[in-house]
Amino acid sequence: MSPSRSASSAPAPSPAARRIIRLNNGFQLLFNLLWWMPVFYAYQRDAGLSDGQIFGIQSIYYIAFCLFEIPTGIVADRIGARNCLRAGAVVMTAANLLPVLAPTYTGFLAHFLAIAAGRSLTSGAASAYLYDGLRAERADAHYLRAEGTARALGLGAKVVCWPLVGPLMALAPQTPYVLSAASAAGSLGCALVLPRLAGGGPGGRPRSPARPGWGFLRDTGAALRALRSSPWLALLMVQGVAVFTLSRICQVNLFQPVLLRHGIGEGAHGSVLAAMTVAEAVASARPQWLSRRVPPVVWVSLLSVALAAALAGTVVGGPWTVVALLCAFAAITGFVYPVQRKLVNDAVPANAPRATLLSVESIVDRAVCALAAVAAGAYLAAGRLDALLWHSAALTCLLMPALHLALHRTGRTRPPHGKDGTTPAPQPVPLPADEGAAPR
After folding, report:
1. Of 245, 247, 268, nearest to 256 (Cα)?
2. How far is CA 144 from CA 278, 285, 342, 436, in A?
3. Half-sphere exposure (Cβ direction) of 385: Cα atoms closer than 13 Å
4. What is the Cα–Cα distance from 108 to 95, expressed in whole angstroms?
């Protein structure tokens, strides 16, 4: 029986697995429900910040994310992903209140630094907890569906909430930040009732009975050895950089400048972002719409190029065309994200520190985003937004074919067993027919 057919006939998840999926859905929905996202650029400009200051804060945010990722990933593998999710929710709740208490450059900088800390605590831990939790319950065949559905539900909540931001701000400008803090507090409630994973350690992976304080360094060394022994894993992480950087820079940093450039006022930004979110939510929950005849790693490369093309198309279109292209961009992001997540998780060797490795991937993503934010600020300060979009698309279209060729060669030449005689992570298989469908 083919792997895809076997996965498509997987039994229904156990009650414990369904509970993990439900709580993960709630955590991801509330933790990522940032009410201020459609208006933070305008909010900071109204507070007196310049474009250089706004994009400078964004660059510092990405750099801080990189610096936080290594220790927080190791912490997740040491104290357990569940405890790391709880800590991240506490930090995120406090972070969303800072702009209310101090609407100044220093306050916004502290806000984004705290956001970086909170998100870094959960970026690897959330995916690691879900993957290990479902595997412990013999429901790992449902991981892709659970990952995509959680993302779709979170995006769906934004569709409902973001159009309300404008009217709410008319009542009180600080309302989006207060509501974001309340949502983060709700995610803490979900994290508090997450079940402990079966396994030897708090993170769900076997551990020796007594590991000394050097365990942090050992986890780091284990992660680096796993990357060195698995070029396939390292290349998959690099492949995801294009997806993350393009989606992050477009949907967060360039979204409002692009709309303003085409005469779309701030009052409509929440509705446009909600429409984009609908497109991304539908695609995130339906990765099975992608043809199974094309390997997932090929899909990631193709969709990365499609993202770049959609972004470049906003240069030549009118207002309605720009909105349509942004929605297409969001839909492509929705398709590619859960597929790329599963590829990386499948490639992590057995007994390797999963959360630490996922944090390493996030470090690379954020480091590139930090450079991209600096470049975006320089382009915008010079009035060259169109040139920025063209250059971003051209760079992606040049790099992705070369990277995919390297992945193809690595996949063909990889030995069937590791150097130490252990069995490496399995090759990714085509997407099952039922993967990504909403759970019944």
Report:
1. 268
2. 20, 9, 6, 6
3. 19
4. 10
Q: Which two tokens stand for residue 102?
A: 């101090």
**Nearest residue to 2 via CA among 350, 439, 431:** 431
Distance CA 25, CA 11 (A): 21
Residue bearing the bigger pLDDT, 212 or 122 = 122
d(C-alpha 50, C-alpha 137), whole Å: 51
Contact present, 39 and 266 (Cβ < 8 Å): yes
Mean pLDDT along residues 37-65: 83
The CA-atom distances, in angstroms, between 404 and each of 224, 305, 311, 348, 401 are: 22, 11, 21, 19, 5
pTM of the model: 0.62
What is the DSSP track for 115-136? HHHHHHHHHHHHHHHHHHHHHH
Would the CA dihedral through 288, 293, 299, 305 be positive or negative?
Answer: negative
* Per-residue pLDDT reduced to its tens digit, 124-139: 777 778 888 878 777 7
Q: From CA 138, how far away is CA 140, in angstroms rounded?
A: 6
Q: How far is CA 259 from CA 26, 39, 120, 297, 307, in A?
A: 31, 12, 29, 33, 18
69-103 tens-digit pLDDT: 666 656 666 677 788 889 899 999 999 999 999 88
For 102, phi then psi, to 5°, come to: -145, 80
- Given a cut of 70, is residue 37 above it in pLDDT? yes
Looking at residue 422, its pLDDT comes to 39
Instruction: Please give the pLDDT value at position 423.
Output: 42
Cβ partners under 8 Å of residue 299, min gap 6: 290, 335, 336, 339
- Per-residue pLDDT at 216: 56
Position 204 scores a pLDDT of: 42
Residue 31 near residue 122, CB atoms below 8 Å: yes
The string over 361-391, giving b where at least 16 C-beta atoms fall within 10 Å of a residue's C-beta and e elsewhere, is bbbbbbbbbbebbbbbbebbeeeebeebbbe
Per the structure block, which two tokens stand in for 25?
């859905």
Please name the residue that has the structure tokens 């150097």.
Answer: 419
